[in-house]
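Re: [ENG-882] Designed sequences occasionally contain unexpected residues at chain ends

Forwarding the minimal case from QA. Structure tokens:
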């Protein structure tokens, strides 16, 4: 690690601690900054830099590391689909080009797995 990178990490750590202190107080940013003799413009600059560093540390969405969440559909679901074919769903969710119909007879596990899978759809 070179000197520039070490200095950057040191400053980010300092700024992060200042931001934590401010946010954990029950004061507004302007009041907290005034009490600690910090220019609010400096505080917001530090906040922006800390956020940028946090975003840079996140893994890239385009890295191909998308995970597939398996959805276990019970074998008796065909029986339920014929029962509910003529009835309207109790819950109807539109997510982009996907439409999800949920009937009262759906199992909790099926609903949980489906919603978990939908969390990963982009």
């Amino acid at each position: 690690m070179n000197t520039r990178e070490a200095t950057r990490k040191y400053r980010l750590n300092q700024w992060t601690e200042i931001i934590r202190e401010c946010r954990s107080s029950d004061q507004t940013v302007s009041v907290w900054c005034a009490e600690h003799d910090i220019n609010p413009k400096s505080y917001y600059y530090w906040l922006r830099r800390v956020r940028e560093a946090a975003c840079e540390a996140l893994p890239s969405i385009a890295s191909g590391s998308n995970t597939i969440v398996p959805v276990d559909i019970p074998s008796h679901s065909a029986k339920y689909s014929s029962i509910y074919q003529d009835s309207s769903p109790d819950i109807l969710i539109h997510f982009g080009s996907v439409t999800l119909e949920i009937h009262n007879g759906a199992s909790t596990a099926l609903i949980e797995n489906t919603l978990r899978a939908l969390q990963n759809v982009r």
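QA comment: On inspection the terminal residues look reasonable. The first helix runs from residue 3 to 24. Proposing we downgrade this to a documentation issue.
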